[in-house]
Amino acid sequence: MKKILHILSLTLLLSVVVGCATGSRNSTGGEVTGVGGHSWAEPTPYGMVLVNRGSVRMGPGEDDSLWNIKADPRGVSVDAFWMDETEITNAKYKQFVHWVRDSIIRERLADPAYGGNEEFKIEEDRQGNPVTPHLNWAKAIPWRNPNEDEERAIESVYRINPITGVKELDPEQLNYRYEVYNHTEAARRRNRLNPARREYNTDRPVPTELPVISKDTAYINDEGEIIRQTITRALTGPHDFVNTYIVNVYPDTTAWINDFDNAYNEPYVRMYFAHGGYSDYPVVGVSWEQANAFANWRTDFLRRSLGKEGVYVEPYRLPTEAEWEYAARAGKNENKYPWDGDLPLTEDQGCFYANFKPQEGNFVQDGQLITSRVGTYAPNDFGLYDMAGNVSEWTSTAYAESVDKLTSDLNPEYRYDAAPDDPYRLKRKIVRGGSWKDVAHNVRSDLRMWEYQNEQRSYIGFRCVRSQIGFAKGNKARK
């Protein structure tokens, strides 16, 4: 009986496999009906809203002689994407910092020089076959009652402040290593491994020279310093499009002092990122490089929960400049701000729409002094908070004076991965939205600003986006 059931099961399985492979019950011939496929409704990512595909006249729509602005609007279209309702908060970024801390501790607990506990690193699968060594996150760190070796591994990521004598995390150790496959460069025709597919014009000879590519790599030297390099060489294979980055993830809390000369901002240095009272405030002092590292970690963190057979998701990333402006203006060409009209407050009641600097020397007229809790002010018509003011926001787009002429009008993006030895001006990235320290004019949604990618400012933060897949019916943007 068992044998008969086994044969029936194999027959059923074979028929299913054949049916899926051919797309038809009869593969001998007939009308073409197509091959079916699976589709799913992508669940709403936590804390995000869906911004539907659309278009906008990007850039200022009218001249402004007072600010020397020339109207030069340009029509662009973007595909649908998920966007964080609010800017990334201290609490969310701190989760990233703690994950990096815990990964270092686990590495050292497995290191024979410290704990030497093999349970903290997986090198074999359940069948005993070797796998790429990786950390075992199911094994809990012995925070309570560690033995001598375990305590040494845990304490190694902390330091004693020489002035206060307080134990604190050692920011210098909190480095995050990640790899990114550059799909854009890998897909370019000129970089194809097969020479015959690099040139389709049959009047020209098949290219014989190997394409020259540039890739980023990084390592930590014997002194513990992060060494970044850009290697230029002849193409050897797909791995040449894998870029490696090592980024120190701890925010620069001293930005509160370095951004403002002769101001008493020391309390923010000590408390803004560390104190729980600021948990729901936007993280600041984070560079463009750190924001990208966070987005990569966030993607990996989500995919871990989905498992090997999990549903595919697009990676979290910084928004392109076009995506950011379209979302901020709620797709309305007439909007200079995320709201209707040309004023950052209501004319009749004086209610403010955003956290900015209303008057010279008066930061508190809008109810705030520095940043405010995310979501304090009303959202725009897409359901997005603080798209003007609070903190300026990094975009993925590189800055150039002629960036509009360099990009397509379909999902426009200008990307330039600056090499370490490139001139500093090539390391500028576009920031948008203005901040708590800016006057009303500078929090407009149609204005472009920039900052160097390695700078960390007390008035720049970020939020993430994720390209939509499937046909979601989630928390859609309101119109």
Describe this protein's structure.
This protein is α+β, with helices and mostly antiparallel strands and 479 residues long. 20% of the residues lie in helices and 18% in strands. The protein is built from 9 helices and 17 strands. The chain has helices spanning 2-22, 90-110, 148-155, 183-187, 255-258, 266-271, 288-306, 321-328, 403-406, and strands at 48-51, 54-58, 74-78, 81-84, 121-124, 130-135, 158-160, 167-169, 175-181, 212-220, 226-234, 242-248, 392-398, 428-432, 449-452, 460-461, 465-467. Helix 2 crosses helix 3. The longest helix has 21 residues, at 2-22. The chain is globular, with a radius of gyration of 26 Å.
Features:
479 residues, alpha+beta, paralog of FGE (formylglycine-generating enzyme), 3 domains, 3-stranded antiparallel beta sheet, 9 helices, 18% strand, disordered N terminus
Q: Characterize the main sheet.
A: 4 strands, mixed
Strand order of the largest sheet: 15-14-13-16
Q: Write the CATH architecture name of the largest domain.
A: Alpha-Beta Complex
Estimate the mean pLDDT confidence: 89
What is the H-and-E element order?
Answer: HEEEEHEEHEEEHEEEHHHHEHEEEE
Instruction: Kindly give the count of domains.
Output: 3
Estimate the helix proportion, in percent: 10-25%
